[in-house]
Specification:
about 400 residues, alpha/beta, 8-stranded parallel beta barrel, 10 strands
Length: about 400
């Protein structure tokens, strides 16, 4: 005990002696003469402008090469793995590796001509009564409620796709994974089941690939971005928000929507054209639920897109217009005027975009005969490509070569 007391009395002396050789302000270590540059914060993928193309199993490599000569720098490649397996009498998941090898061939072909690829899951990865559900099927009210297996199938599909494309060479080639094409209820309302499952699909992809950009289309119409914005915005920061744009619909889709003149069994050409003909700017309906046609011009297009542009501005997120188009038999001058207006809006808002479509269906093709006299019925043989370059083709070649050249120079 005496020893302990003695030590306690001596402790202040020991501590004081020990401090004598320690300076009040010890010198700081020499700073690193070349501090590392902080990593750049990537807030959006590179801007792209290009084409929607047909299903991967029907797409010719030459088509990819040809569109690259137009100046396009991206393709939105349709994936239809359920249809592919069904046609071959195989189980979807058994046939999937074979199908993804085929997709990979097209990705490599695009890479060889400096064209990026958006992988677009264009159909449900399930079967209903032995068939692949169509767009009309999965847009029916109740489809998603009645088929809860959609969630597990979508998660499984995207994990398989992500695992197939893990090679580093695809890191900059694949622009994004487009999770599902055109989900909606009756063409207007958002599918609540779809909005609820998207975070889990993204999480599943992230277990395989932390960096790939994910393209998310919440619904068919721009108003969804205002009505459902809290459900749409994702915690994941590498998400591109997508919309398809065909407004006004009675102009852009004249002859194939509403009165369905294209499928008529009794109309003459003259009667059909008189029924569907719309010019732009001019009177038209933006959507099926509108009771009356109203005058549509660039200002009304901007108003139609305002929920999307406001969403992008508020959350500072990138946007892809995954599809936009005008039917080939619309009045040519009106079509080109519409293209100019919508592309100007897209560019002003820094949107990436894909024209619908390059050599998919003749009715949308920039190489098909154009104008009112080019109209044909579904009961007739579709026309061959026009022998001379169309006005629409000339316009898009100019746009691609100017804008994509500017992008490569500025990086924006």
């Amino acid at each position: 005990m005496k020893k302990i007391i003695a030590l306690l009395f001596m402790l202040p002396i020991i501590l004081a002696c020990g401090d004598k050789n320690i300076p009040d302000n010890p010198p700081k270590p020499n700073p690193d003469p070349n501090p590392p540059t902080p990593p750049a914060v990537v807030t959006s993928p590179p801007r792209v402008r290009g084409f929607m193309v047909q299903s991967a199993d029907g797409l010719h490599v030459q088509t990819i090469k040809d569109l690259s000569t137009w100046g396009a720098n991206v393709i939105r490649l349709q994936l239809n793995p359920a249809t592919y397996a069904l046609k071959r009498g195989k189980d979807l998941w058994t046939a999937l590796p074979e199908y993804l090898n085929l997709v990979e061939e097209k990705v490599r072909a695009a890479q060889s001509v400096n064209v990026k690829v958006i992988l677009d899951l264009h159909e449900p990865p399930i079967y209903v009564n032995g068939k692949v559900p169509t767009l009309d099927d999965h847009n029916q009210r109740g489809f998603w409620t009645n088929h809860p297996e959609m969630k597990d199938a979508l998660i499984r599909m995207w994990k398989n796709i992500a695992q197939h494309f893990t090679k580093k060479e695809y890191e900059n080639e694949i622009w994004g994974y487009d999770l599902f094409n055109e989900p909606s209820e009756k063409g207007r309302a958002a599918v609540q089941e779809w909005l609820a499952m998207v975070p889990d699909i993204i999480t599943a992809i992230r277990t395989v690939n932390k960096n790939v950009w994910i393209v998310f289309q919440p619904g068919l119409v721009a108003e969804t971005f205002q009505k459902e914005k809290e459900k749409i915005i994702q915690k994941d920061k590498r998400v591109v928000y997508s919309l398809h744009f065909y407004c006004p619909e009675t102009f852009a889709c004249q002859g194939i929507l509403y009165n369905g003149e294209y499928n008529s069994k009794t109309m003459t050409h003259e009667e059909a054209i008189a029924s569907f003909k719309r010019e732009y700017p001019g009177k038209a309906k933006n959507h099926w639920w509108e009771k009356e046609e109203t005058y549509c011009n660039k200002s009304t297009l901007e108003a139609e897109l305002k929920p999307l542009t406001d969403f992008a501005s508020e959350y500072k997120v990138p946007v892809l217009i995954g599809e936009f188009s005008v039917i080939t038999w619309a009045p040519v001058e009106s079509a080109i005027r519409w293209f100019k207006d919508v592309i100007d809006i897209f560019e002003k808002n820094n949107f990436s975009w894909c024209f619908h479509a390059f050599r998919e269906w003749q009715g949308w093709s920039l190489e098909s005969p154009e104008g009112l006299n080019a109209f044909w019925f579904s009961r007739e043989k579709a026309p061959a490509p026009q022998a001379t370059e169309t006005e629409r083709a000339k316009y898009f070649k100019e746009v691609f070569k100017k804008l994509n050249k500017d992008t490569s120079a500025t990086g924006k």
